[in-house]
Automatic annotation (TrEMBL):
One Pfam family, short name: DEAD
Motif Q motif: where in chain: 3-31
Record-linked InterPro entries: DEAD/DEAH_box_helicase_dom, DEAD/DEAH_RhlB, DEAD_box_RNA_helicases, Helicase_ATP-bd, Helicase_C-like, P-loop_NTPase, RNA_helicase_DEAD_Q_motif
Domain Helicase C-terminal: 234-378
Gene that encodes the chain: rhlE_1
Gene3D superfamilies: P-loop containing nucleotide triphosphate hydrolases
SUPFAM superfamilies: P-loop containing nucleoside triphosphate hydrolases (SSF52540)
Domain Helicase ATP-binding: 34-207
Protein's name according to its UniProt entry: DEAD/DEAH box helicase
Keywords: ATP-binding, Helicase, Hydrolase, Nucleotide-binding
Record-annotated DEAD-box RNA helicase Q domain positions: 3-31
């Protein structure tokens, strides 16, 4: 296994750029795919979000782009606007940090097409990142000259190459030259995806992931459904019911962290707000107090989701669900350290139940639905009943995700 970017023949300016981003050691998907990608091989890579897959294809793309030419040379297809924008952010960051003047533009639907056409014409970006419908539209309108494209990446291939959507992707690829490189990255490589992808490729290198996210089997996963406005009260009742010895409550927004802490401390005084603004020293002190039991509950952003190894955390509560799928794994992994058992409880709206389903699929875990009744956390079947009675779901706040 190559364990440095130098071993992978990555240019020194890119290595320096990565260093500025705190990236020094390639992740497994990067270690396996950068060399064959630099050799212009087609690739099918199994990689989940958070595995470093974006840089696994961006680093070789940065090598191959001839920045002296003002023409489109790379195209990245993504299933959602959000992902396209995240990828473009990573391109801009790497270009800035490495000093390699690669330019990019996101091409997503719902943005005025005429403005997009003008920007494409004026800027002539090296890489476009976007959703398939709009890209195909612009190719058909002859506003994207696909024949200069050297590399195509299909991100989240299991989604984009799903038989229901694959035709658009195939239509886009057909407009590019035969000798272009095609890389497909996918969280799981189903036979179907493999078949569709290999049809489009020349002898692809298939990279299987050996570090699939796994979850500690000693964690019990639960969810409690409520209206968005009732989330805090539901959390409070759950805490009264389960009486955690030591717990972390995850909240996404700094202000909500403060508010939740203040409200919980109204009832008892053993919560601490661990928000992103807190100084390193205060953070250290708080973790020590938490370790020794002086603080019983940390109300925290994702800053404590990784690496915090405190024994005796009996419960993790997700007052907000994490913004990224894999973050659930890191957050809930704070409980059940060593041989201990622990419980992870999501407080969700009915609209968010699809995210619980995603956790179940991605991490092969089973969640049980609970409700608080008479001060006890007991089994509930509300969500499954509600599915059969759609009218019920209308009483739930479904405007936002959290
Ligand atoms: P991705 O799987 O592409 O969504 O990447 C997830 C996050 O991992 C991004 O924020 C990257 O900046 C970061 N990342 C990518 N490669 C590495 C690496 N080799 N070491 C540390 N972090 C990385």
């Amino acid at each position: 296994m190559n364990n440095s970017f130098t071993d992978l023949n990555v240019n020194s300016n890119i290595i320096e750029g990565l260093l500025k981003q705190g990236i020094t050691v390639p992740t497994p998907i990067q270690a396996s795919s950068i060399l064959p990608a630099l050799e212009n091989k087609d690739i099918i890579g199994e990689a989940f979000t958070g595995s470093g897959k974006t840089l696994a294809y961006l680093i070789p793309m940065f090598h191959k782009i001839d920045t002296s030419k003002r023409e489109m040379q790379g195209m990245i297809l993504a299933p959602t606007h959000e992902l396209a924008i995240q990828i473009e952010d990573q391109i801009k960051l790497l270009a800035e940090n490495s000093g390699v003047p690669v330019t990019s533009m996101s091409i997503i639907g719902e943005v005025n097409i005429n403005n997009q056409i003008k920007k494409l014409k004026d800027n002539k970006p090296h890489i476009i990142v976007g959703t398939t419908g709009r890209i195909l539209d612009l190719i058909k309108k002859k506003k994207i000259a696909a024949h200069t494209i050297k590399t195509i990446v299909i991100d989240e291939g299991d989604n984009l190459l799903d038989p229901k959507r694959a035709d658009t992707v195939k239509d886009i690829i057909k407009t590019t030259m035969k000798d272009r490189q095609l890389m497909v990255f996918s969280a799981s490589i189903k036979l179907e995806t493999l078949a569709t992808a290999t049809d489009l490729m020349k002898e692809p290198v298939v990279i299987k992931s050996e570090d699939k996210p796994t979850i500690n089997p000693n964690i019990e996963h639960m969810f409690v459904v409520c209206d968005r406005r009732d989330k805090f009260e539901t959390l409070r009742k759950i805490i009264v019911a389960v009486k955690p010895e030591k717990a972390i409550i995850f909240v996404n927004d700094n202000e909500d962290i403060e508010l939740t802490t203040v409200k919980l401390n109204y009832h008892s005084k053993d919560c601490f707000a661990m928000n992103g603004k807190i100084s390193k020293e205060d953070r250290k002190l708080a973790i020590e107090s938490f370790r020794h039991g002086k603080i019983k509950i940390l109300v925290s952003s994702d800053i404590t989701a990784r690496g915090l190894d405190v024994e005796g955390i009996t419960h993790v509560f997700h007052l907000d669900l994490p913004l990224k799928l894999n973050e659930y794994l890191h957050r809930s992994g704070r409980t059940a350290r060593g041989d201990a058992h622990g419980t992870s409880i999501c407080i969700t709206t009915i609209k968010q139940l699809n995210i619980i389903k995603q956790y179940e699929r991605a991490f092969t875990v089973k969640f049980t639905e609970k409700k608080v009744f008479g001060g006890i956390l007991e089994d509930s079947h509300y969500a499954s009943d509600a599915k059969q009675d759609k009218a019920k779901s209308k009483s739930y706040d479904s405007k936002t995700n959290n």
